[in-house]
Specification:
heterodimer, A: about 375 residues, alpha+beta, eight-stranded antiparallel beta sheet, four-stranded antiparallel beta sheet, globular, B: about 70 residues, mainly alpha, 4 helices
Chain lengths: ~375, ~70
């Protein structure tokens, strides 16, 4: 009998001999539960974007792989993430996105919390009209804060609190895109959209990080951004993706373009990069706009892709923004057929995970190798704890 | 306002989720109560809705509850 549910040794082999992840990683609920902890809870996972809570007091509940979280911007403007439950009876605190005018009041027994998470009121906790009790120590009963870090407006969370500090763990990507470390201005409602996709979230990463499919799935894109103009980006255990050395700006009817991010290295005049940032964020960076795609697992075979587009200035032309959003949405919609097709394909008994192209599938292998490595470590840890 | 009117106004404010009105109405109920615990009960409600809404009376209500040993 196998020691573990899936054999990951073939995944961890060098690219020319490796196979992709076994089917169970896309279809078996037990493996999905493993991945939830090993890939999404113990890493810096993308939760949402800070632009979702633009003003102090803005609160947004988010279900992240079954965990109720609350995104909150406090009075000083700091964005925090808490477990969205009252410390009294575990009641959900905020059911819908809203503005918190004063304190955060639990709708059940009205325990109240400050926007910094402190427990500030416990009505009738010592009996009617008596709001204190020796056993109710407010300074020990604040909301449970989740470790969070904002980079490129994406709110990353480490749910189990075991990940190294974000700046240390992701120093290489921060350095790689240091040129783009400029203020990002969310384009607003016309620059965000969701795509509900019937596939495991990992398939969206796998598809995004390789350029091999571009001429077949995105023939329009390939007409000006050809396969041979792309290069692989492979940073084991952190991210992988593709770069293009032939980026062309979107132009309006009068030849107008979006303003560039300031002080960029001249190489970005014609270059652009697209990274799958492990586990679940897809980034794009170009001279005049950027985007982030949050992959929110809804179930093992369902993913919500949340797309947010950013610009170098806060006052870009709405017609141009709408055109740019439509362009990207068209590209991302073209991918749905293949990621959903791969999800269906994963129900074929005996599929060995797939044979990679040694020349073209390196970025996908880097991602699978990362998944396999984290799952192996998680299994070893679980075994040791038994 | 009679006790009956106050009760009706409280129910109407709850139904309308008019939490700012509840601050005033529960404060009124506290003033009308003739037992210390009843006063504390209504004051607590006024305070909680004041906290909830960021009402300017929150600090004053808290101070009064604290003076009466009902709040920390």
């Amino acid at each position: 009998m196998a020691k573990y549910l899936t054999d990951l040794a073939p995944v961890r082999a060098p690219l020319d001999r490796a196979h992709g992840l076994p089917n169970a990683h896309y279809t078996d609920p037990v493996v999905h539960a493993e991945e939830r902890e090993a890939l999404l809870f113990s890493t810096w996972a993308g939760l949402t974007v800070a632009a979702e809570v633009p003003e102090p007091g803005d609160a947004k509940p988010i279900d992240f792989v079954g965990v109720p979280l609350l995104l909150l911007r406090d009075r000083e403007g700091q964005v925090r993430v808490f477990q969205n439950i009252c410390r009294h009876r575990g009641m959900i605190l905020v059911a819908e996105p809203r503005k918190i005018e004063g304190a955060l009041r639990c709708p059940y027994h009205s325990w109240c919390y400050g926007l910094d998470g402190r427990l500030v009121a416990t009505p009738h906790v010592g009996g009617p009209g008596q709001n204190v009790h020796p056993e109710i120590k407010r300074d020990e009963l604040g909301l449970v804060e989740v470790a969070s870090h904002i980079w490129r407006d994406v709110v990353f969370v480490n749910l189990d609190g075991t990940a190294p500090p974000f700046e240390d763990y992701h120093a290489r990507i921060v350095a790689r895109w240091a040129d783009f470390d400029r203020p990002l201005h969310h384009g607003g409602p016309d620059s965000q959209f969701d795509l509900a996709v019937n596939c495991n979230w990992k398939l969206a990463v796998e598809n995004y990080c390789e350029s091999y499919h571009l001429p077949w799935v995105h023939p329009g894109l390939n007409s000006y951004s050809r396969l041979e103009d792309h290069y692989h980006i492979e940073e084991p255990e952190r991210f992988s993706g593709q770069g293009s050395s032939l980026y062309r700006q979107l132009k309006g009817d009068q030849g107008e373009v979006f303003p560039d991010f300031p002080d960029l290295n001249p190489k970005w005049q014609t270059a652009a990069e697209y990274l799958g940032f492990f586990p679940n964020v897809l980034f794009g960076a170009q001279r005049d706009h950027a985007y982030a795609i949050l992959l929110m697992p809804q179930a093992q075979g369902r993913t919500l892709e949340q797309v947010h587009i950013y610009y170098a200035t806060p006052d870009t032309d709405p017609t141009m923004r709408a055109r740019n959003s439509a362009l990207w949405k068209g590209v991302f919609v073209e991918d749905i057929g293949v990621v959903e097709g791969m999800q269906k394909g994963r129900h074929a008994p005996g599929f060995d995970g797939g044979k990679f192209s040694p020349a073209m599938d390196g970025p996908t292998h880097v991602f699978h190798d990362w998944v396999a490595g984290r799952i192996e470590a998680h299994r070893e840890k679980s075994l040791a704890a038994q | 306002m009679t006790q009956g009117d106050l009760d009706a106004a409280l129910l109407a404010a709850h139904a309308a989720d008019d939490r700012r009105a509840l601050v005033a109405l529960y404060t009124q109920a506290a003033e009308a109560a003739n037992a210390a615990d009843a006063t504390g009960f209504y004051l607590t409600h006024a305070y909680i809705f004041a906290l909830d809404t960021g009402h300017p009376q929150a600090a004053r209500l808290h101070a009064r509850l604290k003076t009466e040993g009902r709040e920390e």
